[in-house]
Amino acid sequence: MPNIASAPFDRFSRTLPLLKSGSLEVRLAQSEEDIKAAQELRYEVFYEECGAQPDERMALLKRDVSRIDDYCDVLLVIDHSRNKIVGTYRFMLREAAQHYGSFFTSTEFEISKIIAYPGQIMELGRSCVHKDYRTKPTMQLLWKGIGAYIQLNQVTVCFGCASLMGTDVSKYKQALSYLYHYHLAPPELRTKALPAHYQDMNLLPKSKVDQKEAMQQLPPLLKGYLRVGGFFGEGAFIDFSFNSIDVCIIVRRETVTERYSQRYTPTTLSFGEV
């Protein structure tokens, strides 16, 4: 169990440069009300839409509540035309995990190599977007928010769990095999799914992988990770309570593609454009 102490920082003290696209804006949560709204969106997407099983407290509150939120910064996408939070991400830095006692990812993957990696590390988690906003402008704005946060905190490695909906592995043979054969993390950063729910990703030989079909099976978030040079750990984790097949994503700052590294320069960010 985590050795939970007091939160290591005022999570509402950090801010990002102005990042907007039309009526959409991305920023960090600045109040408990913001956190509750993000938890409500997570509940709607994960539990009501995707079939995860809430515990009794979550079901009563209709919120994806977690004590780990107290140790994280929460990114929000807000549609000002509707005064509504339509997307969210959760960020946990190394020092926050030390105070909390662990990263969430360690409940599904062996991550000792990432923990040992020098410099600042950051866990990405609890990403979701309202079904009406799963569009290119929303996803681009989310990535700009992630990039700004990485720069401001001098993060060297990002990692976290990313999900494929459902637990039927046969639906994702092409996708999982593609990630294994073409995007496996280098040995010095490679995570491995824990044995209890381990699923081999090497389901098809490389010669049988249809990259077009594989990309069709991948959700937009995983495609986004690939576009920024992301790697994947060894094995998937079958999360039956969350109704998902989870893979571990690893992104090294120096492997981010030129397209995105240019977008994340301080000059670009200061204009608040996508």
SSE string, helix = H, strand = E? EEHHEEHEHEHEHEEHHEEEHH
Q: What coarse outline follows from CA principal-axis ratios? A: globular
Distance between the termini: 41 Å
Q: Write the CATH fold name.
A: Aminopeptidase
State the helicity in percent bands. Answer: 25-40%
Give the name of the CATH superfamily. Gcn5-related N-acetyltransferase (GNAT)
Tally of helical runs? 10
Instruction: Give me the CATH architecture, please.
Output: 3-Layer(aba) Sandwich
Mean pLDDT: 89
**Number of DSSP-assigned strands:** 12
State the secondary-structure class: alpha+beta
Would you kindly provide a written description of the structure presented here, covering whatever features stand out?
The chain is an alpha+beta fold. The protein has a single domain, classed as Aminopeptidase. The protein has 10 helices and 12 strands. The chain has helices at 32-49, 56-61, 94-100, 112-115, 136-152, 173-183, 211-217, 220-227, 258-263, 266-270; strands at residues 19-21, 24-28, 73-79, 84-93, 109-110, 120-129, 155-165, 192-193, 198-199, 231-232, 236-239, 244-252. Strands 1, 2, 3, 4, 6, 7, 9, 10, 11 and 12 form a 10-stranded mixed β-sheet that branches. It has a two-stranded antiparallel sheet with strand order 5-8. A hairpin with a 4-residue loop joins strand 3 (73-79) and strand 4. It starts with 18 loop residues before the first strand and ends with a helix. Residues 1-6 and 264-274 have low confidence and may be disordered.
